[in-house]
Amino acid sequence: DGGITQSPKYLFRKEGQNVTLSCEQNLNHDAMYWYRQDPGQGLRLIYYSQIVNDFQKGDIAEGYSVSREKKESFPLTVTSAQKNPTAFYLCASRKVSAGNTIYFGEGSWLTVV
Amino acid sequence: AQKITQTQPGMFVQEKEAVTLDCTYDTSDQSYGLFWYKQPSSGEMIFLIYQGSYDEQNATEGRYSLNFQKARKSANLVISASQLGDSAMYFCAMRRGNAGNMLTFGGGTRLMVKP
Q: What are A71-113's pLDDT values in tens digits?
């Protein structure tokens, strides 16, 4: 089935450790995005990429890093520099030539212990 | 800068009745788009409906319709014939101009459908 797959669904991390969240899509979408959601709040943009090997910072990029080596993959690394990493992380993608709709994966819950 | 405001943190609706979820926005862009997403307790964000700023007709998708009032900068979501499965968080979002299609989200409204 086509879609956006995020893994792991739940992740626990010790303070001071980096962790990488996976996002893979088989929709042949060009643009990919990472959003963060804190409890009871809306989503905030971390990073986005419109083409392979290119990405831009969003509104809250500090403490995060990304790569876009393949069209279908856009992993997010939460580094130890991120002060409050516990949150719900959502990956999204869009087919540039097929309109404006952005589709989301099922999200990953990250908890720092 | 763009801003989305959803003033209703929570709402109840009786099953089979219609409900309107409010969304107002602020932008200096001439071209923009407005989205509504549903987020059930599982966490996934489900696309519901889209309205472009130049669209003359209000968007409709099945039981969902978007009441777009450009002069008032509002884009309210109307759900007709509510179902128990409609209970979820609902987010209004705005596309920022034409670059990158990044979305700015409102704070969400929790809708609870009563049997």
A: 999 999 999 888 899 999 999 999 887 777 899 999 999 999 8
What is the maximal distance between C-alpha atoms in chain B?
A: 44
3-state class of A98 per DSSP?
A: helix
DSSP letters for A18-60: -EEEEEEE-S--SEEEEEEE-TTS-EEEEEEEEETTEEEE-TT
Which residue numbers in chain B have pLDDT < 70?
97-100
Q: Report the candidate in A32, A109, A6, A44 with the shortest Cα–Cα distance to residue B91.
A: A44
B46 close to B38: Cβ distance less than 8 angstroms: yes
Interface of B with A in 16-75 (CB under 8 A): 33, 35, 37, 42-47, 50, 52
3-state secondary structure of A79: coil
Strand-pair category, B109-114 with B10-14: parallel
Query: How far apart, in Å, are the Cα atoms of A109 and each of A4, A36, A113, B30, B73?
Result: 16, 10, 13, 36, 34
Q: d(Cα A84, Cα A81) in Å, to the nearest integer?
A: 9
Contact list, A99 vs chain B (CB under 8 Å): 50
The predicted structure's pLDDT at residue B97: 65
